[in-house]
Design a protein that fits this description.
The structure holds 2 protein chains of 2 kinds. By secondary structure, chain A is α/β, with parallel strands linked by helices. Chain A has one domain: P-loop containing nucleotide triphosphate hydrolases (Rossmann fold, 3-Layer(aba) Sandwich), CATH 3.40.50.300. In chain B, 79% of the residues lie in helices and 0% in strands. Chain B is built from 11 helices and no strands. Chain B is globular. Classes of the chains: A alpha/beta, B mainly alpha. At the A-B interface, strand 5 and helix 2 of A face helix 6 and helix 7 of B.
């Protein structure tokens, strides 16, 4: 399998507290890796390291994609997704506009919104973010990542604050993303969530 | 209370006819306040943003200083600026004392800590997920900073309105640096003070009504910014 991430003796400390201790980690291209473990085991920390939001305190983390500008290829959906104080359309197309892409925004917006289960995307386009429910916010935030067609999608408990219907929609969106060739890493408390997927589960232990 | 109701009636008459003295006081107030606010915002918004956005050694000390200056007595500001712009002072050659520009300097100094501290506070209050979200969407550091400013736009609106409210209602700086010269540097607050001391309540009440109207508009704007910021 073509490698995507490879880590050795990865360690992250915040102050004197060890948040993550991972002897080795490997991920191949196109894989779905589920990060499972208890609270405080370092799932979110590992995702932040993989997203290049932070640097490890020690150890090595290697990314086999565009290592000079990894954030152009990797995107992370936070557990409690944040949307800007703007409309749905603005939020979903923001990443594209930040990259200077201005053409075909409407079509890509429609495709991304449909991929996360909005049957009538244009009805949602002008809705301000504060009028969305928790589940809708999470799906809009996911659409904002899908529209970028990332090489790697990192998801931090994407179904933690949503109802059963939204959970179903998000899982089906993840299946759709995987089918398009995107590699996915998903942190979750519920390792059984991805039982119907061909996923590899990495169990994280609380750092000693 | 008869003189109060008489004064109120006369005030309404003055406002309706807008005599020269009243118009001049309103004009001087709005000119000096507007210019002072412009200077304070130009200097204070970038400094406040950097203070709240970046991490550097001594940041907490800088915040402490700017927060302390929020309680800077207006008379003390007037005194310090007076020392600088008086004819014998280091800036005496520019003839700023008892002029609108002289008042503007003092009022800008009064507004500056409000703009800096409140802007820094607004940036610090911004949800930390905002910056992370933007980074994960591929934003450059400059784009992140600009979008963070956009995210706190309603808070910045509050900063402007608060600073304006503070400056438009102050007396100390305008009195000491403007000299309360009729048809020149007499502002609404210094005119109210003078007319009251002379027992001429009509013009004082007329100007007081205008100030109340301004305060009402300021509060309306603040409520609007607060509502927009909360909903958005």
């Amino acid at each position: 399998m073509t490698p995507l991430f490879e880590a050795r003796d990865l360690c992250k400390n915040y102050g004197g507290i060890k948040a993550l201790s991972l002897p080795s980690f490997f991920m191949g291209k196109g894989e779905l890796v589920v990060l499972a473990g208890r609270n405080g085991s370092g799932k979110s920390t590992l995702l932040r390291l993989l997203a290049f939001l932070e640097k490890p305190s020690s150890g090595t983390l290697r990314y086999y994609g565009n290592a000079t500008e990894p954030r152009k290829e990797i995107t992370l959906l936070l557990q409690d997704a944040y949307l800007l104080k703007e409309t749905v359309m603005h939020n979903v197309t923001l990443g594209l506009r930040l990259r200077g892409e201005k053409h075909g925004l409407l079509q890509r917006f429609t495709d991304a919104m449909q991929a996360v289960g909005f049957s009538d995307p244009m009805a949602m386009a002008d809705r301000p973010q504060y009028k969305l429910s928790g589940g809708e916010k999470q799906r809009v935030a996911l659409a904002a990542r899908i529209i970028l067609k990332p090489s790697v999608l990192l998801l931090d408990e994407p179904t933690a604050h949503v109802d059963a219907d939204s959970e179903k929609t998000i899982l089906s969106s993840i299946a759709h993303i995987l089918a398009s060739g995107t590699s996915v890493v998903c942190a979750t408390h519920d390792a059984g969530l991805f039982s119907s997927f061909s996923a590899r589960t990495v169990w994280l232990k609380t750092a000693p | 209370m008869g003189y109060f109701s008489d004064g109120f009636q006369n005030a309404v008459g003055l406002l309706l006819h807008m005599d020269d003295a009243t118009t001049s006081a309103i004009s001087a107030t709005l000119t000096s306040t507007g210019c002072a606010l412009l200077i304070a915002l130009t200097l204070g918004l970038p400094v406040g943003f950097l203070l709240g956005y970046t991490q550097f050694p001594g940041k907490r000390f800088c915040r402490l200083i700017s927060d302390t200056l929020l309680a800077f007595p207006t008379v003390l500001i007037g005194l310090i600026v007076y020392v600088f712009i008086t004819h014998r002072g280091p800036l005496g050659q520019y003839g700023l004392l008892f002029t609108i520009p002289g008042m503007v300097i003092g009022q800008a100094i009064l507004a500056l800590p409000i703009v800096i501290s409140w802007t820094a506070q607004a940036v610090e209050n911004l949800d930390s997920r905002c910056r992370e979200t933007l980074l994960t969407l591929g934003a450059s550091p400059v784009q992140v900073a600009l979008l963070c400013i956009k995210e706190i736009r309603y808070d910045l609106g509050m900063v402007c309105v608060t600073a304006f409210g503070r400056v438009v209602t102050e007396v100390g700086v305008a009195m000491m640096l403007g000299g309360n010269i009729r048809y020149s540097t007499r502002t609404m607050t210094t005119a109210i003070s003078l007319e009251t001391s002379k027992g001429e309540f009509a013009q004082g009440i007329a100007l007081g009504l205008v100030l109340l109207l301004i305060a009402f508009v300021i509060n309306l704007l603040m409520a609007w910014f607060r509502r927009k910021g909360r909903l958005a």
